[in-house]
Amino acid sequence: MRVLMLKQKMMVAVVLSLTAGCAVQPTGPGDAADQRGNVPEAVIAMAAPDQDVATARLVPEDGCYWYEHSGPVETTLLPLRTANGNPICVAREV
To answer: Could you say which residues form the signal peptide (predicted)?
Structure first.
């Protein structure tokens, strides 16, 4: 019985040590446009009220500004919108 418990403990230790290397490592400060709070004054002026522009950032994948909404359960990125409800995005190069 004791041998079985020892084997189980060893298996748990091995699994934990192997999966510890699977965590996503932070890449450090990324592109300046992707950093939180780096939003031009013109974008802040266009943003509708009740959006946390202090957490806004430009997402390079879609070229739009997003902000962090802190809900009761989780924090979610939402598109930064104008008072009319349109998303605020940068002009795309052709």
So the answer is: 1-22
48 C-beta neighbours (distance < 10 Å), count: 14
Rounded to whole angstroms, how far apart are CA atoms 91 and 56? 18
- Return the SS3 of 48: coil
The pLDDT profile of the chain, 94 residues, written as one tens digit per residue, is 777 777 787 777 766 666 665 544 444 444 444 556 679 999 999 999 999 999 999 999 999 999 999 999 999 999 999 999 999 999 877 6
**How far apart, in Å, are the Cα atoms of 4 and each of 7, 10, 14, 16, 47?**
5, 10, 15, 18, 62
Nearest to 65, CA basis, from 35, 26, 31, 93: 35
Q: Flag whether the pTM goes above 0.70.
A: no
Q: Are 66 and 53 in contact (CB under 8 A)?
A: no
